[in-house]
Design a protein that fits this description.
The chain is mainly α. It contains 9 helices and no strands. The N and C termini lie far apart (44 Å).
Length: 173
């Protein structure tokens, strides 16, 4: 059981992607008044809540309160930048929580801001793998791949939800 918990917590980005998918499926099955909600709307809402909100909240807690552990997991030495990454993560988490029930602009912010951070982090991880041989789980493991996948998924969900109808009609929903 201890190993399972460690696996879930050390692969938190995948954990929250799975939780978002489960929440979307449950929401789709439940529906309202017999009508099934649109998949893109629900998937984007739960992406914002779990993949952005809770993932970045977890990242905040780890980098700010458990900086030594987070740095070791990434394969780095602890530094004052741990707290800075943590507080940036807190900001993204708040935007993700607001975007759960928000409109187009809030959801756009919940995708674009973290995407810039995550894609930059993926570049940093790749650099560390190539130049420093850093293949620690927090540098070259699931986090590296989700740093690329999460922004792509967010862009896809935004397009699925708002791309077909345009921003103007999105505001009326």
């Amino acid at each position: 059981m201890e190993q399972a918990i460690a696996l879930v917590l050390s692969n938190f980005t995948i954990t929250f992607l799975v939780i978002a998918a489960i929440a979307t499926a449950i929401s789709m099955l439940a529906g309202r008044n017999g009508a099934r909600p649109r998949l893109a709307e629900k998937a984007l809402a739960y992406y914002a809540l779990f993949v952005i909100g809770f993932t970045f909240l977890y990242n905040f807690v780890m980098h700010v309160f458990f900086g030594d552990m987070a740095a070791a997991f990434i394969g780095w030495e602890n530094s004052p930048f741990q707290a800075e990454v943590g507080f940036a993560s807190l900001g993204f988490a708040v935007v993700g929580f607001l975007a759960f029930k928000g409109g187009f602009e809030m959801r756009l912010a919940a995708v674009v801001g973290p995407a810039c951070f995550l894609l930059g982090a993926a570049g940093g991880h790749a650099y560390q793998m190539i130049m420093a041989g850093n293949f620690a789980p927090g540098n070259a493991g699931a986090i590296f791949y989700t740093d690329i996948f999460v922004p792509l998924l967010g862009a896809l969900l935004l397009w699925m939800r708002y791309g077909k109808t345009g921003q103007a009609s999105a505001r009326s929903t």
